[in-house]
Amino acid sequence: MIRVGNIAAADRPLHALNRIAFGPRPGDLERVREIGAERYIAEQLNPESIPIPRELTARLDALQTFRMTPIELFMRYQAPLMNLPKDDQAARKAYQQQARIVPMEAIKARILRALYGPRQLQEVMTAFWFNHFNIFVGKGLDRIWVGAFENQAIRPHTMGRFRDLLSATAHHPAMLFYLDNWQNSAPGGAVGNPRFGGINENYARELMELHTLGVNGGYTQNDVIALAHILTGWGLIRREAFRPMLWRRLTAAGAVTDGNGFFFDPRRHDFSDKTLLGRRIAGGGIGEGEQALELLASHPSTAHHLSFELAQYFVADAPPGALVDRMARRYLDTDGHIGAVLETLFTSPEFWDERYRGRKFKTPYEYVLSAARVSGVNVINFRPLAGWMQQMGMPVYGHETPNGYSQTEEAWLNPDGMMMRLSFAVALGSGHMPLDAPDFEETVAEDSVRKVAISAPSEAIRRPDAPLDGAAVAGSLGSRFSVRTIEAVTQAPPQLRAALILGSPEFMMR
What we know:
7 strands, two-stranded antiparallel sheet, globular, mainly alpha, 2 domains, 27 helices
C-alpha cells in the first residue's frame, strides 16, 4: 500500500503517469483516475499481466531484423564483408549500406514500444537499464548487435533479479565487443592471433565502476586487475566452434558457448587462483566469472549504487538518503529483486512528496516521447522523432562512452537545448511534423539498397496536417498549468495553443 505523502489525491494519477510512464496518452489520465494510482502501479509492476495490442505486435513483427540473434545478424550482415576482396570497394559499400537497416529497425522498435506499449514501466526500465549498461551503436559490430542486446539481455530482466540482468549483459557479444573483453587473454594465450595479446581491463573496470559497485564502491586497482584475469577467455564465438573435431577438444578443456554468440575459450583463460574484494576465487575456468558476478551482484555497495540511480531517476536529482537506504536494504533482503526495490520506491512517502512533483527535468528522449504520446498523433514515420532526439543531443543508442546519458537537469537545461525543444514543440503542435506520413523502409536487392515509400506519394510527406487541438492536449495533461502559462495559451491563436503547451515550463518537467 502507498505510504501517504502530501501530493493531493487529484494529482496522483498524473504524477504516476509522468514518473513510471513516458507521460499520458489521450484517455490515460481518465483511466488512472478511475482505477486509482495504486492499482495502476501494481499493474505496471507485473507487465506480463498486461496484454500487448495486436497492432503493435504486428508492427514489430514486420521488422525483418527485429527477432534475429547475434549470430544470425553476423552471418547476414557481417560475414559477407569478411569474404570480399579488399579492393572491391563497391561491393563493400553496398553491404555496409545494407546493414543500416539493423540499427534503424532497432530504433523504430524502441520508439514504437515507448509510444504504444501498455507496459509503460517496462519500457521506462528498458531505457533505464540500457543506459546503465550502455553500449554504442557506432562501434564496429555493435551497429548490428545493439537491438539484439536490448531485446535479449535487457528487456527480459528489467524487473527480475539483478544478478540475471548482470549475467545476461556479461554474456552478450554486444557488451563483450563494446568493452573489448573479447580480446582479454591470459599472457601467452594469443592462440595465433595478435589481437589476443594479453590482459584487457576495460570491461572489468566498467563492470565494477558503472554496472555494480559504483565509483566509491570499495574496490581497488588490484581488484580491477584480478577481475580482468577472471574474465580472460570470455568472448565471441569463433570458427573453431564449427569444426567438430577441434570443438570436441575445446569442450573437453572447458570451452562453453550458448548458441547466441558467447564463447568461453579456455586457451585464453588464466587458470591461476585470484583474490577479488578479499575473496579467494580458485582457478576453474568459466565458473570463476560466474562467482565474480554473484559476488558483485550481492555486494552492499551494488545495492546502494543501484538504489541511488533508481531513486535519482524516479524521485529527484539529489534523492533522499533515507529512501536510498531503505531501497538498498530491500535489495539485499530479496536477493537483488528489482521489482521489489521498485515497489519500495513507489510506495514510499518520498515518491509521493509534493516537493518532488514536477521537478524532474525531462531528458530529450523523455521530452520527445511524452510530446508525441500526449499529441495522440498516429506515428507511422518514426524518423522525425529519432532525428529530433539526435538534434537535442540524445540519439537513441548514440552515447559513445559506457557511462550512458546523464539523467539530471544540469546536463540538459541550457539555452541551445531549450531553443531546440521550442522548435520541436512548434513543429509538432502546428502539424508540420510528418509523423503520420508514409514511413520508409530499407529494402535490399541482390546488389543494391534503395529507400521506398510504403504507401503514398511524396506530396503527402510534405503536406502539413492540421494543428493539434490545444484543449485536447491540455485535457490529457490534467489542465494543470501556471497562471502565466494559461494566459499565454488563451491569448494565442488556436493553431499555436498546443505548441505553447508542449513548450511550457510545466511540460518540460515530469
